[in-house]
Design brief:
Length: 517
């Protein structure tokens, strides 16, 4: 008996450690070399100066994520590498947590299959290679779910740790706590009332421990509120189905479907086949209601928000808050399909089905050109390097750079890697109130907001990077040259500074003598 117990304890440590190490090893060769996303740059800038009012980082703040980055960057001393290390570590932790929850809810084999599916998920893999928050969110999502399941099953001692982790999750990404709160409240309903009240108090204290410092570093409540309001009025809040109706729903639903498929890959076939079998054989009543409700409360809050309020069509990482639930359900569906087919083929083919899912997922990440692939990372690093090299040929004292609202080759990447230039984001928007959005611009890695662009007196020419679809409207303008950057599909428009409004007619700009910097 003692020998068996020791063997189980060793296995209990060895397998999670193996899953963690395998995940970390598979991430190492594919990391991005340059800051991938506009948000990545804003996180990097926040390491030096945390200021939500100028989107360092953007609202609602991601305070604990940035502070964790600050600590690691003391040793790593490279913001991109710092945040990628965070992504890699939390990728491994997410896979381990998926294994633990799958094992506890279903079986050890289901946990292992779920972990391997998670490890090779193209969406999770991709976000383990770039400087973004989504993998950290995935970890806290599945960890909170794991603790909630234990509480629901009667282990009330985990109520305290779950409250703390939920509060920390809110400090990483504020929406995480909101989306997971229904699951948390469901799990604690059987706990004595006094413990429920105390746990909610602990959750509130945990949130205050990061929220108050965040307000202080932002400049107070008014500055934070105005920054959040600015983002909501000019960006996030303008596109809900209540504002745009069917138009937004089509975009949101299409984006959410794609992001989910990017996450589960070939697992969609096993999920669909298992669901079809349950319906066809009228076995839906055999599904455990408590588990069905648990997964629904885990998945639906974020899905409903993304379908009705907002999801950005270029950010597949949004789906990572609920993808761990699908990894576990894929494992269960593989087990179910195997049990259904076993009487016919007389063999256990669960490993074969899992291998098929894993092989397709690996192919998607390494060889495809989907937005969650290694090819996307490599292409972005190459294209951004070429863009920056071409801009460097121009004199920063005489050349201003104007960039449209691009998130992968935008003003943020240029102002970060070419700090000597004046770089302006051209994104003219008008709120329903009639208020016109201020212009974000940067110089020497500092971000500024202004109603008008006042150029230094030395500026005589401009450069404007253009993506393919914007090039056509510029190529016919007299006096402006358009150069294609070989071998990539990015163009550089350039000309006398007086012609810039021919490209951006709504730009609020004054060309006048300026004070010395």
């Amino acid at each position: 008996m003692r020998f068996d117990e020791e063997s189980r304890n060793k296995e209990g440590i060895f397998l999670p450690l193996l899953l963690f190490l395998l995940t970390v090893i598979t991430r190492g060769p594919f990391t991005s070399k340059l800051l991938y996303h506009m948000d990545s740059v804003q996180f990097a800038l926040a390491l030096e100066k945390y200021d939500i009012t100028v989107h360092q980082p953007h609202p609602p703040g991601y305070f604990l994520y940035v502070m964790l980055g600050r600590i690691l960057n003391l040793f790593i001393k490279d913001p991109n590498t710092t945040f990628i290390v965070i992504s890699i570590i939390f990728s491994g932790l997410t896979v381990v947590a998926v294994y633990c929850l799958g094992r506890e809810m279903f079986s050890r084999r289901s946990g292992i299959i779920a972990a391997i599916v998670a490890m090779t998920s193209p969406n999770l893999w991709f976000h383990g290679e770039v400087a973004l928050t989504y993998v950290v969110e995935a970890f806290f999502s599945v960890m909170v779910a794991l603790l909630c399941w234990r509480i629901y099953r009667g282990e009330h001692k985990y109520i305290w740790l779950s409250a703390i982790l939920l509060g920390i999750a809110g400090g990483i990404r504020q929406n995480t706590m909101i989306f997971l709160l229904p699951l948390y409240l469901f799990s604690i309903r059987g706990v004595p009332t006094r413990k429920i009240i105390a746990s909610l108090g602990l959750l509130g204290i945990t949130c205050l421990l990061w929220f108050i410092p965040m307000l202080s570093m932002t400049g107070g409540w008014t500055a934070y509120r105005d920054a959040f309001k600015e983002l909501w009025e000019f960006h996030t809040g303008r596109f809900s189905i209540f504002e745009k109706g069917w138009y937004s729903f089509k975009i949101f639903s299409s984006s959410l479907f794609k992001f989910t498929i990017y996450g589960i890959g070939a697992g969609i076939f096993t999920l669909s086949l298992a669901a079809y079998s349950l319906i066809r054989n009228k076995r839906l009543k055999s599904v455990e209601r408590n588990k069905l409700l648990f997964f629904s409360l885990w998945i639906l809050p974020s899905v409903l928000f993304y379908l009705m309020i907002f999801i950005y069509p270029a950010n597949p990482g949004y789906a990572l808050i609920f993808l761990p639930a699908l990894f576990i359900l894929i494992a269960v569906s593989i087990e179910y399909i195997n049990d259904e087919l076993k009487p016919l083929i007389k063999k256990d083919i669960s490993a074969l089905i899992a291998l098929f899912v894993v092989a397709i997922n690996i192919y998607i990440f390494i060889f495809s050109r989907y937005p969650i692939s290694y090819q996307e990372i490599r292409t972005h690093d190459r294209d951004l390097s070429i863009l920056l090299a071409n801009i460097r040929t121009c004199d920063p004292l005489r050349t201003a750079i104007f960039v449209g609202p691009y998130i992968f080759y935008g003003y943020r990447q240029i102002m970060y890697y070419l700090p000597g230039y004046y770089v302006y984001q051209v994104d003219v928007r008008v709120a329903p109130t009639g208020e016109v959005r201020k212009t974000f611009w940067g110089h020497n890695k500092e971000t500024f907001l202004s109603k008008e662009i006042i150029l230094p007196e030395t500026i005589g020419t401009f450069i404007s990077p253009l993506i393919n679809y914007d090039r056509n409207k510029v190529s016919e303008i007299k006096g402006i040259s358009v150069q294609k950057l070989q071998p990539i599909n990015i163009y550089l428009a350039s000309g006398d500074i007086s012609l810039i409004k021919n490209i951006f007619p709504d730009l609020r700009i004054q060309i006048q003598k300026n004070k010395k910097d």
